[in-house]
Amino acid sequence: MATPVPVGANLVIEATDFPQLLAAVDRLGYQMVGPTLRDGHLIYGDLTGVADLPAGWTDEQEAGAFRLKRRDDQALFGYGVGQQSWKQFLFPPHHLLWRAARRGDDFQMIPPAEAVPRYAFIGVRSCDLHAMAVQDRVFLQGRHVDPVYQVRREQAFILAVNCGGQGCGTCFCVSMGTGPRATFGFDLALTEVLPEGKHYFLVEVGTDRGAGVLQAVPQRAAGAAEIAAAASVVAATAANLGRQLDTQGVKELLYRSYEHPRWDEVAARCLNCGNCTWVCPTCFCHTIEDVTDLTGMVAERWRRQDVCFTVDYSYLHGGSIRPSPRSRYRQWLTHKLATWFDQFGCSGCVGCGRCITWCPVGIDITEEIRAIRETEASLKETEHGDL
Amino acid sequence: MPPKGKPKLSVWKFASCDGCQLSLLDCEDELLAVTGELELAYFVEASRAMAKGPYDLTLVDGSITTTHDAELIHKVRRASKYLVAIGTCACSGGIQALRNFKDVHDFITAVYAHPEYISTLAQSTPLSAHVKVDYQLNGCPINKHQLLELISAYLAGRTPQITPHSVCLQCKLKGNICVQVLGTPCLGPVTHGGCGAVCPTYHRGCYGCYGPKETANTSSLAAWFSRRLGLSEDSLVRAFRTFYANAPEFRRESEAHEK
Q: Which chain A residues are Cβ-neighbours of B183 within 8 angstroms?
């Protein structure tokens, strides 16, 4: 057996040998999930091998719009992030916590007999690695550890992919310091390089587990030119992002802006449908539902992902504390970019752009921050003018 | 809370297609459990037994469109401890509430050879316009899982787990990719979930047949339909004037686009 490559090493795998990499992951017994096309749509679903990846596809994303397009090459990862995120696997949106059955005057608890999947995530982008790190803080690093998240997260094998310059119309990872290059949290990280007539992957080894997988795959040490070519792919992506968000003092800006008239303006457009929270890779809110069957013999407790855009969500005794769409949108955005820092010590936004693309009416978080920032000064002047 | 012993169930039909009360008969696997827990006291579509009230749980299907029905619903209410409006017709007036936007006599004279035999009200109205309704279960037709959840919750004396979320969340739970973002106008973001996102699952936009969700922002959605997805004013009227045409939110939106 060959000597394992060290963590941090850069290797090259030719595209023709790439199927062997996924086969090696598959042989370890992981359930591989990654980008694939279903009914012509980009989703994260089960992969059996390279043939399931959306080779030769890219996307165009704008606020409230997503289109898949053909590329003029056979790139395997030549698109950006889609509607779904890895959150759906690590934090199942509808999860049975327990079941209980009546036994005479007593009852018996029946823990769910679930086979927890050991996932291998194929094609994780840097923004989503940061999103997992954010959810780690929420689910693993507080006073209470969430066992449902923990077991899925700790077992997961992560094959990251650095973004390759297409399909980043709504991304702003550079502004958030979260991409486009994966810097942590992966077993292996790829950069797909397609210069004239060539097609190879530069592979960075992140863990011993990742190095172990590589032993079964034809590879060679990367040359300086290949490392430079991969770096230029990532640099071109960074230079071509569709969105920017000025994070300078954004927490304080939002704390000063509770009564900014922009909240009324965005509330007139916001459908309070909750799509932004559902597609956000860091949103973690959930609720608990108890149900019984018709006979009253069986009760179940479910955890369901919840969204802060319903009136019910903030219902305390006597009523909802956020009855207006204005207050609900303000709560969501202020949590992402301000109160999250106080609650978890980091930003709740990783700049993936999903909330912009998948808002049915194209509300753009970067545009909202810009509008608040740009009008703050003039509002102050008006206030003084009124004195 | 339900009474001790077997609670008495009654099911009534007003102006409707019957589909919603059939949803109860459609609970094939669960039907025996339902009849095990509830006495079918009055349900003419299921049984010849027509026991008198009072009834513990009453399900009412259909809207009020005649003077006869307008009187009968009061009798049903008086005989019922807990009255649930089931389906779009009972909750909002149904598709027959399209008459509310026109003169019903024009329809009668155009359709019937002897219009003098037809006695109907000028408007189709929901039960809540006539009597106190204890719970509204939306949908055209209602979802059988929601109906079973409602009955189970009633029997256990608990709150039914029927959420106020938009159809969008049901799409996300099913793994559907948003049809509107892909370019198809969809009423899902302003529509009450409960159907299981049937239409978007088959790549159609939602037709709004579960009615407006809470704080439905129809004007913003209509503006997007018009500006970004190219719908005409006539199309906007039709989009909001179908199953829940008479619901105040959808009615206002369709009227706003009528010439």
A: 65, 67
